[in-house]
UniProtKB/TrEMBL annotation, chain A:
GO terms for molecular function: ABC-type phosphonate transporter activity. Its main location: membrane. It holds the Pfam family BPD_transp_1. Residues 78-261 form the ABC transmembrane type-1 domain. InterPro entries: MetI-like, MetI-like_sf, PhnE/PtxC. It comes from the Bacteria. It is found in: Cell membrane. It comes from Poseidonocella pacifica. PANTHER family: ABC TRANSPORT SYSTEM PERMEASE PROTEIN P69 (PTHR30043:SF1), PHOSPHONATES TRANSPORT SYSTEM PERMEASE PROTEIN (PTHR30043). GO terms for cellular component: plasma membrane. The keyword Coiled coil does not apply. The chain crosses the membrane at residues 25-49, 84-104, 130-153, 188-207, 219-238, 244-264. The keyword Transit peptide does not apply. This is Phosphonate transport system permease protein.
From TrEMBL, chain B:
This is Phosphonate transport system ATP-binding protein. PROSITE patterns: ABC_TRANSPORTER_1 (PS00211), ABC_TRANSPORTER_2 (PS50893). Keywords: ATP-binding, Cell inner membrane, Cell membrane, Membrane, Nucleotide-binding, Translocase, Transport. It comes from the Bacteria. InterPro entries: AAA+_ATPase, ABC_transporter-like_ATP-bd, ABC_transporter-like_CS, ABC_transpr_PhnC, MetN_ABC_transporter-like, P-loop_NTPase. SUPFAM superfamilies: P-loop containing nucleoside triphosphate hydrolases. It comes from Poseidonocella pacifica. CDD domains: ABC_PhnC_transporter. One of its GO terms (molecular function) is ATP hydrolysis activity. Pfam families: ABC_tran. The lineage of its organism: Bacteria, Pseudomonadati, Pseudomonadota, Alphaproteobacteria, Rhodobacterales. GO terms for cellular component: membrane. Residues 2-246 form the ABC transporter domain.
Length: 269, 258
């Protein structure tokens, strides 16, 4: 009986052969070269980069103290922002229900509807909210309506996708049992599918509202209503103290939104 | 009366799971179907209420040919066939009462189903049946809060709420401990007598099959090779039913037919 080491008479071991080592070092060097080339090609003005700390200090100096004279207007526009997020989420939730139903493999009526559902989801998800907003500002003109519809379009894909996946993951056995009682398709959905996806439904709706609250703060940059319009106005006029107030207000809003959604999640789930 | 003639079920291109099977169940007898896993017991039961589509053959329940029904007519026929499942198949997040009433879904209007406004007669019958099996105190509890035996009782009551003409039970006790299992078998036997209802039970536990049922049907590789009263099931017959594996049986195409 000989052990493997006796049999082969080896007392040295390396993880890679010399040839493999060469390849690995070569790859590493290649990556480093690519990074250096990429950095040199984007024309960074290094003086500006090195001057950044000074600029940050300067900007903060001009922002401080925040100027609260327009606070009432800011809060009013902030409320618009909350409304954009909330209405858009509500509409998106309603519209995403049928989309989720036809894009889940186990509930979709046929292959045609399955692909239609997936097409809606992909279209909605692959276009950023800001791009949707640019489109709808052109259609509806600047203002809240464009903002609501832009966020809604982006949310349908998100909610529909997650809800559709929840439908695909349900326990099929209760569905089978209710089909065996002679219940119609609609009643089977109401009794066996909806109760099972309810927790996901609420979790996804709350999460999307949370995200929409943040997204709606930048919609104003393209004229689709909300706090972004005021923010851009203040930046364009170099009114840095007011910019500071607006930024603080946005941070406060996001924190409040986070607290509310955490509370709802605990409450409902 | 349930009359199955020349029933064949084939999944895909392989050998059929049910091979030209004939079975007649008359009156209010409790029939158990035994056989090793893969013998086709579950497929046979699911062909009756068309959860599985039979490939060919005929299944007639009290004068209605079940194999050709579609849509509305199929749903109407399914109302008359109650089914109890191995995994109970309750909707966990609904209350026991909602689960029980879901046995009536084929009868009530969509609005009544959605709004949970069940007919008074249905509520009364639900309470009677729940009291009969001892789960009335859980009417407002969520189904997932009950123990296994209690959950299967909910499953039985749901099936009985359909006022079925036959009750199918697919390994109703396989997920339960031995004591609870005997209680459920006793309950099925007693309910069959009380409601004058034929009951067909797929079961692995041969001792329970002998004790609680009037007739035993032994299946092997998609054929019935034993069909008699429990006392006639002796060691030799048991060996025939449980010998070999379904896979090996299919490979040899079951050369010797009983």
């Amino acid at each position: 009986m000989t052990s493997i080491s006796q049999q082969f008479g080896r007392d040295e071991w390396t993880r890679f052969t010399p040839r493999q080592k060469l390849t690995r070092w070569g790859t590493l060097a290649g990556c480093a070269l690519a990074i250096v080339w990429a950095l040199s090609s984007i024309e960074v003005i290094w003086a500006w980069v090195w001057g950044a700390p000074e600029q940050i200090g300067d900007l903060f100096g001009r922002m401080y103290p925040p100027d609260p004279t327009n606070l009432v207007t800011i809060l009013k526009v902030l409320w618009d922002t909350v409304n954009i997020a909330t209405f858009a989420t509500a509409f998106a939730v309603l519209l995403s229900l049928p989309v989720a139903y036809i894009s889940a493999q186990n509930t979709t009526p046929n292959r045609g509807t399955l692909w239609l559902g997936r097409l809606i989801l992909v279209t909605s998800r692959s276009v950023n909210t800001i791009i949707w907003a640019l489109l709808f500002v052109a259609i509806f003109g600047p203002g809240i309506v464009a903002g609501i519809i832009a966020i809604m379009f982006r949310s349908i894909g998100f909610i529909g996708k997650l809800l559709g996946e929840a439908i695909e993951e349900i326990d099929k056995r209760p569905v089978e049992a209710l089909e065996a009682t002679g219940a119609s398709r609609f009643k089977v959905i109401v009794y066996a599918i909806i109760p099972q996806v309810m927790p996901t439904f609420w979790a996804v709706a709350i999460l999307r509202w949370d995200i929409n609250l943040r997204e709606s703060t930048v919609l104003g940059l393209v004229g689709a209503g909300g706090i972004g319009i005021v923010l851009q106005g203040a930046i364009d006029t170099f009114n840095w103290p007011e910019v500071a107030t607006i930024l603080l207000a946005i941070i406060a809003l996001v924190i409040i939104g986070e607290v509310i959604s955490a509370f709802l999640r605990r409450r409902i789930l | 009366m349930l009359k199955i003639t020349d029933l064949v079920k084939r999944y895909g291109a392989g050998d059929p799971v049910l091979k030209n099977l004939d079975l007649t169940i008359e009156g209010e007898s409790v029939v158990s179907i035994i056989g090793s896993s893969g013998a086709g017991k579950s497929t046979l039961l699911r062909c009756i209420n068309r959860l599985v589509e039979p490939t060919s053959g005929s299944i007639i329940l009290n004068g209605t040919e079940l194999t050709t029904l579609r849509g509305k007519n199929l749903r109407a026929a399914r109302r008359k066939i109650g089914m109890v499942f191995q995994g109970f198949n309750l909707v966990d997040r609904l209350t026991v009462m909602e689960n029980v009433q879901s046995g009536r879904l084929g009868y009530i209007s969509t609005w009544a189903a959605v709004s949970r406004r069940y007919p008074k007669a249905d509520i009364q019958r639900a309470f009677e049946l729940m009291e009969r099996v001892g789960i009335a105190q859980y009417a407002n509890s969520r189904a997932d809060q009950l123990s296994g035996g209690e959950r299967q009782r909910v499953g039985v009551v749901r099936a009985l709420m359909q006022q079925p003409e036959i009750l199918l039970a697919d390994e109703p006790t396989a997920s339960l401990d031995p004591k609870t299992s005997e209680q459920i078998m006793g309950l099925l036997r007693d309910l069959a007598r009380e409601l004058k209802l034929p009951v067909v039970i797929n079961i692995h536990n041969v001792t329970e099959a002998k004790e609680y049922t009037d007739r035993i049907v032994g299946m092997r590789y998609g054929r019935i090779i034993f069909d008699d009263e429990p006392a006639k099931l002796d060691g030799a017959e048991m060996d025939k039913i449980y010998a070999g594996s379904p896979h090996a049986d299919r490979a040899t195409q079951g050369a010797e037919t009983p």
